[in-house]
Design a protein that fits this description.
Elements: H1 2-23, H2 27-35, H3 38-72
């Protein structure tokens, strides 16, 4: 499972890296950056991402618990 999460994070990082390079001159990003609201956008994205990671870990623990319970039977 750790390999899967690592692979997912690596793919996500490369996706964001290529997306950032392809965007070029984006007017909306300049406006958000100049008004300081870009930090709010980044914070919201980070909270969503961390929530997703926490959700994945809880699902992984629940599945592991069920697998162990099934092996005992």
């Amino acid at each position: 499972m750790k390999k899967l999460i690592l692979l997912f994070l690596l793919g996500l990082t490369s996706f964001f890296h290529s997306f950032a390079q392809a965007s070029g001159d984006v007017e909306m990003a300049d406006v958000l950056r100049s008004s300081g609201k870009i930090y709010v956008v980044v914070a919201v994205v980070c909270v969503i991402f961390l929530g997703f990671i926490a959700y994945l870990f809880t699902i992984d623990r629940k599945i592991s618990r069920l697998e162990k319970k099934e092996k005992r039977m």
